[in-house]
UniProtKB/TrEMBL annotation:
S-adenosyl-L-methionine binds at residues 27, 68, 119, 189. The keyword GTP-binding applies. Binds 2 [4Fe-4S] clusters. Binds 1 [4Fe-4S] cluster coordinated with 3 cysteines and an exchangeable S-adenosyl-L-methionine and 1 [4Fe-4S] cluster coordinated with 3 cysteines and the GTP-derived substrate. This is GTP 3',8-cyclase. Gene3D superfamilies: Aldolase class I. Catalyzes the cyclization of GTP to (8S)-3',8-cyclo-7,8-dihydroguanosine 5'-triphosphate. Keywords: 4Fe-4S, GTP-binding, Iron, Iron-sulfur, Lyase, Metal-binding, Molybdenum cofactor biosynthesis, Nucleotide-binding, S-adenosyl-L-methionine.
Amino acid sequence: MLIDAYGRVIDYLRISLTQRCNFRCQYCMPESGVELGKHENMLSHEEMFEFVKICIDNGIKKVRISGGEPLVRKGAEDFIAMIFAYAPHIDLAMTTNGYFLKSKAQALKNAGLKRLNISLDTLSNEKFRQIARRDGLKEVLEGIEAAKSEGLGIKLNTVAIKGFNDDEFEALMSFAAANNAQIRFIEYMENKHANPELKSMRADEILSKIATFKNFKEITKSPQSPSRLFACDDGYIFGLINPHQCDFCTTCNRIRLSSEGLLIPCLYFDEGKSILAAMKKGDLASAKQILADVLANKPEKNRWQENQISERGFYQTGG
Ligand code: SAM
Ligand code: SF4
């Protein structure tokens, strides 16, 4: 079993398959000047898989694939199939912008993927182009349809931005409900790669906005989930992720592996240790030791409490 210095059981591994992305969302990546790691400095799927096996053998029960955009990496579905073949009991999920799902949903399902979190900040073509700095709403909506047809579980992730999509919460929620998907509103988290002009909305502002069109009450959530849950009068349940309040650190069960082999103990924390050299040499004993060291140093709390803004972008760590 993997246990950190605060007695938290770590059973959830998040893997960033790549820093690359076909979008340039204003809250995540700059328009230009994105420094992408060199191919030789990345873990291959086989090297990642060797490390995933160590993690699974030591108690990891859930693996989420993210990025950058995981589906821009060739063979993402083959990587998932490797994990599924090794441990069919693992809860295998992916976070994606949805753009490539129309062509990939079936392969992902066949590979053993169970669930998808799909990012959707707006239902307007114009606003989509504005926030993602690329066209793509049509493809994302088609991707959601494809994932639904494959029977993949779907949640929608919406970053709440004042003056941008706060007038669309009702439409986004209706869209999610119509697609049998839980929507989770996410507080925009300031970071050095984002457009500094974006205006965040705190949890109370998001909830006040939703209260203008829905009656809801907070319900008990799973202790490990970062998402608070709210049940509407009509039975629909939506989520809210508010890291600024940091009430999920005490039960955090996660560790993160980036595409360049950094093992990172917390999304809002820059320090990590590299397993790249160990995995390139096939030195599994060293990789295991690095895992133990990172767990021993997993911080008690994320750094939002100290008002520190992370140097690493979400696209680098895997949001
Ligand atoms: N490309 C995929 C996607 O967009 O879903 C996966 C990677 S993305 C970094 C993972 C999640 O992080 C997305 O839901 C995205 O909306 C969220 N995210 C990125 N930057 C964020 C920020 N500054 N604040 C809050 N959420 C952010
Ligand atoms: Fe790409 Fe996802 Fe970041 Fe948007 S949030 S730029 S889709 S990695």
